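FORM 12-B: Structure-to-Sequence Request
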């Protein structure tokens, strides 16, 4: 993959956030909560992509985050830090609830930001 130029870097990370959400959607498609909780590979794959989403928020400029404040930038960042550093305390049930409840709304907001560029 070609590295983006400095001025484009944040849009690259925005696209990576959207891609990570699409991957998560693919991983959990058709799964019930119970099936998800019984599938450690899918749990790991979802967690990895949540980490990518949270890490990418570091590259979105403050002025963009302020204008697009319906996106929970800080929550995404904090979630990434928790998943990456407190992995023994990660509750797969909370991971499921997060992706089932919040991911679609976040994706729509990120896509709107991308479309507005």
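FORM 12-B RESPONSE
SEQUENCE OUT:
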């Amino acid at each position: 993959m070609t590295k983006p130029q400095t001025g484009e870097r944040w849009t690259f990370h925005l696209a990576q956030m959207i891609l990570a959400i699409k991957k998560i959607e693919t991983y959990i498609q058709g799964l019930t909560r119970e099936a998800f909780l019984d599938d450690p590979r899918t749990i790991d794959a979802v967690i990895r992509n949540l980490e990518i989403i949270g890490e990418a928020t570091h590259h979105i400029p403050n002025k963009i985050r302020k204008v697009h404040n319906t996106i929970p930038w800080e929550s995404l960042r904090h979630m990434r830090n928790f998943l990456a550093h407190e992995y023994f305390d990660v509750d797969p049930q909370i991971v499921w609830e997060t992706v089932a409840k919040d991911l679609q709304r976040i994706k729509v907001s990120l896509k709107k930001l991308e479309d507005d560029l």
